[in-house]
Amino acid sequence: MTTTSSLPADPAAPAAAAPAPHRRRRSFETAARGRGALLGIGGFWLASRAAMLWMLVNDFFSSNLVRVEVTATYHNWYDVLSTWTLPQHDIMWQYPPAAAAVFLSPDLLPFLTYFQAFVALTVLCDGVVLLGLVRAARRSDGSMAGALLWLVALPMMMATPFARYDIQVTLLAVFALLALRSRPRAGGVVAGIGAMVKVWPLLTLLGTPRGRSTREALVAAALSCAALLAVFAALFSDTFGFLGNQGDRGVQVESLGGSVLMAARFLELWPGWIDFQYGAFEYIGPYVPDIARASLALTAVGFLLLLLWRVRANHWTSATPFDAALCAIMVFTVTSRVISPQYMIWLLGLAAVCLTSRNTTQRPVAWLLLAANALTTLIFPVWYADILATSALGTVLLCLRNGLLLYATVWSVVRLWKATVLRGRAPDAAAA
Q1: I need a surface site. Which of 70, 113, 172, 338 has the fewest CB within 10 A?
Q2: CB atoms < 10 A from the CB of 101, how many?
Q3: One Pfam match, by short name (predicted)?
Q4: Residue 340: half-sphere exposure toward Cβ, Cα within 13 Å
Q5: Taking Cα atoms as reference points, which of 108, 142, 144 lies closest to residue 125?
Q6: What is the full DSSP assignment across 313-377?
Q7: DSSP string computed for 376-409
Q8: Which residues sit opposite 142 in a β-bridge?
Q9: What kind and span of H or E run contains 274?
Q10: Residue 20 above 70 pLDDT?
Q11: pTM given for the model
């Protein structure tokens, strides 16, 4: 006679045997979703960048105004640089000496025209930025939000990004930040190279944790800057000629100070006018020098505030270097005498890096920048004629965009400060 035990089955037995196929199934489904997401990102990147290229070559919304930067300005510089001379006598040359490498880079594709080669290399850099952001999302605290922001935000600018060299500079800043987390020396080297191309990538080192990481990054940046400077000083003459041209800049129409003058001009409270000089449309008339000096003073105040944050900060997370870099660039951009449309590429690139980490404090700031980016496209190139004519539409658009940037900058500083400056707390062990 067979009897059946009334004892309950061992609860550990199914737990030991059953989960294996379930774990395999879940891992396969996760991998499939990951591959599907990557295919979707790749497909959208190809489609959106093809649309941007179409706009660039088909005069969509006055793309001829966008193309002229490459076909005329950059190409003219290329002709001068090819003779191993920096175009320091051109008042539009306002860049550190290593920028020459970017303008000479179309020689890498000799089978294309200068314009075609420059645009092709810019598109390539755009794709490399996206790959870096996707890879950063695979970290333990990672998020795909950064890659998605970059993927969507750039096409919102229509053709402008592919006819400027700011994507190349943003690439250096993005990879400097991403490298700082595990390789401070490599991050410092890339930041130093970026500084010799367009200065501002050096600010990516502001948020490195105190101690060894900061020392290694700063020393590496200083050495790479010195090495590049020595190389270009040997190849070209007057490597610091750009400083004089940069110092003579006035108040650009699209700047924060420019929006104040635009509102006053629209209300007929200011008798000034607009003129093209130093490669941009600037205001001419009474109080312009005062506003230019006020902008420089605000930049100095912003820099001191960032230094104060650096001294007072006592809590670091994996996202703090990203957040500090975005905050610093926003401060310097908003207080600048110049806010060209392509400056949004810098801000969006750094915001995308912030969003690669779930620990970032700058998430709402990043979405504000996305809105400011949409307004920037309406300002240039869509309704740029209204901006220059100081129409009601142009005045409202510019004041709204600059007001949004100013609000986002203040909010960025406040959020960074609150998250990292904790009263009554000793510095974190990781930052000490």
Answers
A1: 113
A2: 16
A3: GT87
A4: 16
A5: 108
A6: -----TTHHHHHHHHHHHHHHHTSS---TTHHHHHHHHHHHHHTBTT-S-HHHHHHHHHHHHHHH
A7: HHIIIIITHHHHHHT-HHHHHHHHHHHHHHHHHH
A8: 357
A9: strand 273-277
A10: no
A11: 0.89
